[in-house]
């Protein structure tokens, strides 16, 4: 439930305020019988630099809706007074409505639940420490940068956090490690893990009757392995001789191996899902801004439901991240969510977030299946047990045909991913192993003591033919092996949430893609699947810290670049193929070549991103343009940004937001789009326009040449787009590039013709 004052126009807070419910305009007195729950009250820009003065103003505001000063004081859970002004407090609905009617309140939101989105990677992306030069060495591997994680805590004994060879803690760091259960800052923090805090306030009010798991630690130590995993992917120190039961062997290292790590634990183990509340997440943002974090990696979010797309969970996360990005200059990298491959499922939609999709990489895990006729077939599997032999049978109905599969390896065919979990459960309960045939060859990360093998339908039918043609079919399944290299094609993972953007269709989401499939990382040594202290998992939770590590390196060599400039550099230099030049496919039914709604601008290209040539930068005025174009009212924009704002009439076009992509969701005949680029390459540069127009679409650029010198560092241009289609179309894709002959500054061009609007 949310409250916002003003007209219904004020409720057009869609885009970064996913939904606000209006209509509560009646002044309400406190009712002693009303249930109290946690609300988050956003007041926008701080009106004073002293946090204590800001906190006192929150107290006075609460006193206006409580009968006593003491009741008001006891209601406060968190004060947010570092990056922005606001607080979390236990309120009745009446009190929340009363506060929402105040002219100095931006919005009041009920507390909500947030879930986790859940070694070869950096070499695959070209970040190799063995090379004599390159981004890793130029950035000193991120040594002076602090990367923060809002997640599930750390396992501090992990070698990922060893501080061997690190210099002093960066002078700008003002954070600390907080003591708690089995967590001693003097023992567990060092020059690598320099910050660790935890947040649980408001748990009972948010989850009445739901207790934190007894396995959890009331401290920054995390029983859940997720926080340790994502932080190690982004910034693990060098750890030799790592593997998962022999799979994925080698040296584990993060994208920025010398970066310093700060963990803000907000996610806690509880049944049925590990989760947190928004109040804790917002407090973590506030603390991170105060502490001096340089980059934030957030593998949290609530996926968008394409049937019911507006989800107000995003509002709280995105308000907090707005202040981090726009006001504090802290890039925030977030996952696209794991509800693909359906369209309109991508989450974390705000234009200031860098939203990351997930791909596979050039590594797979497989077993040899030797049949009774001595023919050997490969199948994908993470099986790390001993070689296993058994009778091989075909089971059509794995849900009911228990007697056939008992004690055997069984083959079954499934159509969708959700069919697989039932088959896996049946296998672990009754069988010696499972061979899953399905339309795709994508490998899941199910972990089991039994061999679970993935094959496509073609291989599945070969196995079925063998079973039906043999009087006593058998199979011997080897221990898992690792395959690395070019023969393995890169795919956008089936689970990775897809665009287009359901809230602001003219803003491309996701922005970029990075490896997030079957990634080896450190995890909690207490976690059941640790082997020992390492695991393999998949998700946009894992592709997010891959990009966050790259942002750390870029920020180290370009400390004066804004978050928008860093984002532009990553997007405009991305690969449209895999690193070997092979096409990237999008996993789904049917499988197709990947496009902007699958992988955004493409697959992240680390080395090219350091020298993009031009960037599409954005500042506060650009975001105000976005707010006005999206229908936000003047008062709300003023409160949020701290800058008095009066939107123009008519409103500006959202197509003109200076985003490093052009997405036109409703092209009737012709439209002109404007953009501005800043030169961050050689001072004297000349760029020429190169257009790959979507089919049936004409694209003209004015001017066709941009000339930069010592006096001209920023230039604007116009892109005129017209359609020859005479009927409605789906989105058709192309690209637009500025090229100086060496650097190609490329952005996606996505156009949908709408002759007749719905």
UniProtKB/TrEMBL annotation:
GO BP: any one term: proteolysis
MF terms in GO: serine-type endopeptidase activity
Domain Subtilisin-like protease fibronectin type-III: 656-751
Record-given protein name: Subtilisin-like protease SBT3.12
Signal peptide feature range: 1-28
Family annotation (PROSITE patterns): SUBTILASE (PS51892), SUBTILASE_SER (PS00138)
UniProt xrefs under CDD domains: PA_subtilisin_like (cd02120), Peptidases_S8_3 (cd04852)
Superkingdom: Eukaryota
Keyword Calcium: no
One Pfam family matching this protein: Inhibitor_I9
Matching PANTHER family: PROPROTEIN CONVERTASE SUBTILISIN/KEXIN (PTHR10795)
Active-site residues annotated for this sequence: 151 (charge relay system), 226 (charge relay system), 541 (charge relay system)
Keyword Nucleus: no
Every Inhibitor I9 domain range: 38-117
Keywords, ordered alphabetically: Glycoprotein, Hydrolase, Protease, Serine protease, Signal
Positions of the Peptidase S8/S53 domain: 142-578
Family of this protein: Belongs to the peptidase S8 family.
């Amino acid at each position: 439930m949310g409250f916002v004052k003003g007209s219904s126009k004020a409720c057009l807070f869609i885009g970064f305020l996913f939904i606000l419910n209006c209509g509560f305009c009646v002044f309400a007195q406190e009712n002693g019988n009303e249930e109290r729950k946690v609300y988050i009250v956003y007041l926008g820009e701080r009106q004073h630099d002293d946090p204590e003065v800001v906190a006192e103003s929150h107290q006075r505001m609460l006193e206006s809706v409580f009968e006593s000063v003491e009741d008001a004081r006891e209601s406060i859970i968190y004060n947010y007074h570092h990056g922005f002004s606001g607080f979390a407090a236990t309120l009745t609905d009446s009190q929340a409505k009363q506060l929402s009617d105040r002219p100095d309140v931006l919005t009041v939101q009920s507390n909500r639940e947030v879930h986790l989105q859940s070694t070869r990677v950096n070499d695959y992306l070209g970040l190799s420490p063995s090379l004599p030069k390159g981004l890793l060495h130029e950035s000193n591997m991120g040594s002076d940068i602090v990367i923060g994680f809002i997640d599930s805590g750390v396992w501090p004994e992990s070698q990922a956090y060893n501080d061997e060879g690190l210099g002093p803690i960066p002078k700008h760091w003002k954070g600390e490690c907080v003591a708690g259960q089995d967590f001693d800052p003097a023992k567990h923090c060092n020059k690598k893990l320099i910050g660790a805090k935890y947040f649980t306030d408001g748990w009972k009010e948010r989850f009445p009757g739901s207790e934190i798991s007894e396995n959890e630690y009331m401290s920054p130590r995390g029983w859940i392995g997720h926080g340790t995993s994502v932080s190690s992917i982004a910034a693990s120190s060098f750890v030799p001789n790592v593997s998962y039961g022999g799979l994925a062997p080698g040296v584990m290292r993060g994208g920025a191996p010398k970066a310093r790590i700060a963990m803000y634990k907000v996610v806690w183990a509880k049944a049925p899902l590990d989760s947190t509340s928004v109040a804790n997440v917002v407090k973590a943002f506030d603390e991170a801004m105060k502490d001096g974090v340089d980059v934030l990696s957030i593998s949290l979010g609530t996926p968008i439901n394409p049937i019911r797309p507006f989800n107000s969970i995003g509002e709280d996360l995105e308000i907090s991240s707005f202040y981090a990005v726009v006001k504090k200059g802290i890039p925030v990298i977030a996952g696209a969510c794991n509800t693909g491959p359906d369209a309109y499922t991508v989450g974390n939609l705000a234009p200031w977030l860098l939203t990351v999709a997930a791909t596979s990489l050039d590594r797979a895990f497989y077993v040899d299946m030797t049949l009774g006729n001595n023919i050997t077939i490969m199948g994908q599997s993470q099986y790390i047990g001993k070689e296993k032999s058994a009778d091989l049978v075909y089971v059509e109905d794995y849900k009911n045909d228990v007697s056939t599969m008992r004690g055997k390896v069984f083959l079954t065919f499934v159509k969708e991913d959700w069919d697989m979990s039932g088959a896996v459960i049946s296998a672990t309960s009754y069988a010696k192993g499972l061979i899953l045939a399905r339309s795709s060859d994508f490998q899941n990360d199910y972990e089991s003591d039994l061999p679970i093998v993935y094959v496509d339908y073609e291989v599945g039918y070969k196995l079925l033919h063998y079973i039906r043609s043999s009087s006593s079919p058998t199979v011997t399944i080897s221990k898992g092996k690792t395959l690395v290299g070019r023969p393995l094609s890169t795919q956008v993972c089936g689970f990775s949430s897809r665009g287009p953007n359901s809230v602001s269709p003219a803003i491309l989401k996701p922005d970029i893609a990075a490896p997030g499939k079957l990634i080896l990382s450190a995890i909690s040594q207490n976690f059941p699947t640790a082997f020992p202290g390492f695991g393999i998992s998949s998700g946009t939770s894992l592709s997010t810290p891959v990009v966050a590590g790259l942002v750390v390196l870029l920020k180290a060599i370009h400390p004066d670049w804004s978050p928008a400039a860093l984002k532009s550099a990553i997007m405009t230099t991305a690969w449209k193929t895999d690193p070997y030049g092979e096409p990237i496919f999008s996993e789904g039914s049917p499988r197709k070549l990947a496009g902007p709604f699958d992988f955004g601008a493409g697959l992240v290209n680390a080395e090219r991103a350091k020298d993009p040539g031009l960037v599409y930068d954005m500042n506060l005025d650009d975001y105000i343009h976005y707010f006005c174009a999206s229908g936000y009212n003047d008062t709300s924009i003023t409160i949020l940004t701290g800058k008095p704002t009066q939107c123009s009439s008519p409103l500006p076009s959202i197509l003109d937001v200076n985003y490093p992509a052009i997405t036109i969701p409703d092209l009737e005949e012709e439209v002109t789009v404007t953009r501005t680029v800043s030169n961050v390459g050689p001072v004297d540069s000349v760029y020429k326009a190169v257009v790959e127009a979507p089919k049936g679409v004409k694209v003209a650029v004015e001017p066709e040449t941009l000339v930069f010198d010592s006096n001209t560092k920023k230039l604007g241009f116009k892109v005129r787009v017209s359609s020859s289609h005479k009927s409605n179309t789906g989105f058709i894709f192309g690209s637009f590039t500025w090229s100086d002959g060496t650097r190609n500054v490329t952005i996606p061009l996505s156009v949908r013709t709408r002759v007749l609007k719905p």
